[in-house]
Amino acid sequence: MYTVREGKIEDLPRVLELIKELALYEKAPEQVTNTLELMEKDGFGPNPVYGLYVCEKDETGEIIGIAIYYYRYSTWKGKRMYLEDIVVTESERGNGAGKLLFERVMAKSLEEGCTGMMWQVLDWNEPAINFYKKYGADLEAGWLNAHLQDYEIKALLK
């Protein structure tokens, strides 16, 4: 029904569409400022900072899902895989594409010698929480996300 493969540069327009679909689902479409140019440079340039898997429907070859990951370093645990996002287009959810993508990223983490895998899930996203619970994932409480935007950093460092 589905095939998971490594993403290619020519997949990026569809990848960005799926990212925007996720942002809409998460009630934050205005938060997407990424561009095809940035994704091309950051994922396929001389120093890639993320990896990408796509999930295609076997009968049509249409990309219906993506998984984007990168590596992070934990002072306590060492090299970790960070799953930035899994996105499956709404009409295909619940049919196994997310499972294939998640398991492919898990396998990649082992192939790359990672000591484990990490990701975030919104506390109101019950379908995703239930999906991860099926794997026995530890959903931690007590950690707060922190971030600064580039324009904020520039202002602070002036």
TrEMBL record:
Signal sequence extent: none
Pfam families: Acetyltransf_1
Keywords: Acyltransferase, Transferase
Domain N-acetyltransferase: 2-158
Top-level taxonomic group: Bacteria
Gene3D superfamilies xrefs: 3.40.630.30
Protein name as annotated: GNAT family N-acetyltransferase
